[in-house]
């Protein structure tokens, strides 16, 4: 269980810890807290500190102990942990580095600040806020990640958006687009933990009902997933219904249900309320989102993060579609016999309703001359 899963209702202020180190297990948090000087000074166990609301001690103790951890938090994890509190000037730099953290190894702090449209002072405050002593400490961590061949750190914003000499704008645009799409697909799929994927598919297969939710651009992703799931199982609902309010549909969400919230960036405010209410009514929540959903992800049972960057002003949802396709494919493999039987019944109904003109082109061709 992660720290984010426990709330004040459990008798502990673990949200303070989740703010510092989202996603850490309780065992990791206990070990880190025990190694901190604050534990020595207070002689409190982790739970005692939480119950006594020593939130500042907890956060400071965890952050101080990060230097002694075997695997310090990555740059992206630190940015995501602090993202919601960043002022606009620092958030622009955070957005730049979430897409291309490897650029730190080759650019100065001033150059990164200029690329993000912010000041050097804001950049300095940004890295200190993330818990780094100075910019050199960040650069060393990133260089080590590049040395290990992490695709996250091997990419570059300049390479993804630059124009090669002697190439037409169109051909270079295609090359840039392809490079970014491959980058997005690689990061999104490699970030999925096999155990998380297994748990999600098991839950979707055994759920009483699956509710798929999406607004704005996420709506078309939600519609795609809902229609694919309907080929494999019954009781898959799309929310919100066209031109309808949500209350009538959410009243039936409860124990044994899975809510799939697709929330790509520029989310509407009701997304968090739907997730909170669904959890409170006993449902499990899968959030499919982009890297900016740091706070929203804490409300989910599972989170699958999809990269959406593109060389243009428009986000790309190719990686998100691939992740949705992967979920459906594994769900079909898990219950292949039931899935095939349902597909056969669907195809029979298509034939009886004469819905699809799959072979119309054969009958509409002019007679060939002999």
TrEMBL record:
Coiled coil regions, renumbered to chain: none
Membrane-traversing stretches: none
Protein name: MurR/RpiR family transcriptional regulator
Signal peptide limits: none
Cited PANTHER family: GLUCOKINASE, RPIR-FAMILY TRANSCRIPTIONAL REGULATOR
HTH rpiR-type domain span: 73-149
GO molecular function: carbohydrate derivative binding; DNA binding; DNA-binding transcription factor activity
Organism lineage string: Bacteria, Pseudomonadati, Pseudomonadota, Gammaproteobacteria, Oceanospirillales
GO biological process: carbohydrate derivative metabolic process
Organism of provenance: Billgrantia endophytica
PROSITE patterns linked: HTH_RPIR
InterPro entries reported in the protein's UniProt record: Homeodomain-like_sf, HTH_RpiR, RpiR-like, RpiR-like_SIS, SIS_dom, SIS_dom_sf, WH-like_DNA-bd_sf
Listed Pfam families: HTH_6, SIS
Entry keywords, A to Z: DNA-binding, Transcription, Transcription regulation
């Amino acid at each position: 269980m992660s720290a984010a899963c426990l709330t004040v209702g459990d008798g502990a202020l673990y949200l303070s810890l989740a703010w510092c180190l989202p996603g850490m297990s309780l065992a990791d948090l206990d070990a880190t807290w025990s190694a901190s000087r604050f534990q020595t000074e207070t002689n409190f166990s982790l739970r005692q500190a939480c119950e006594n609301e020593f939130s500042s001690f907890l956060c400071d103790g965890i952050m101080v102990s990060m230097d002694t951890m075997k695997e310090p938090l990555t740059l992206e994890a630190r940015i995501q942990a602090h993202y919601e509190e960043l002022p606009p000037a620092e958030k622009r730099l955070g957005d730049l580095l979430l897409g291309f953290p490897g650029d730190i190894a080759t650019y100065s702090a001033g150059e990164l600040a200029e690329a993000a449209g912010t000041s050097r002072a804001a950049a300095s405050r940004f890295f200190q806020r993330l818990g780094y002593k100075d910019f050199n400490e960040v650069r060393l961590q990133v260089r080590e990640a590049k040395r290990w061949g992490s695709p996250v750190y091997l990419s570059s914003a300049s390479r993804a958006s630059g124009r090669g000499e002697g190439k037409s704008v169109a051909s270079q645009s295609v090359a840039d687009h392809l490079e970014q799409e491959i980058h997005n697909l690689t990061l999104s799929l490699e970030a999925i933990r096999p155990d998380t994927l297994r748990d999600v598919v098991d839950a979707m297969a055994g759920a009483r009902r699956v509710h798929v939710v999406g607004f704005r651009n996420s709506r078309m992703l939600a519609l795609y997933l809902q229609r694919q799931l309907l080929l494999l199982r019954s009781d898959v609902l799309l929310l919100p219904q066209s031109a309808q309010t949500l209350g009538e549909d959410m009243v039936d969400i409860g124990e044994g249900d899975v809510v799939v919230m697709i929330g790509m960036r520029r989310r509407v405010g009701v997304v968090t309320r739907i997730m909170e209410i669904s959890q409170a009514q006993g449902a499990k929540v899968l959030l499919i989102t982009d890297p900016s959903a740091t706070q929203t992800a804490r409300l989910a049972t599972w989170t699958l993060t999809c990269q959406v960057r593109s060389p243009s002003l428009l986000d790309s949802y190719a990686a998100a579609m691939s992740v949705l396709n992967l979920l459906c494919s594994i769900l079909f493999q898990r219950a292949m016999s039931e899935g095939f039987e349902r597909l056969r019944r669907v195809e029979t109904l298509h034939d009886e309703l004469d819905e699809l003109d799959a072979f119309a082109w054969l009958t509409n061709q002019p007679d060939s001359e002999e």
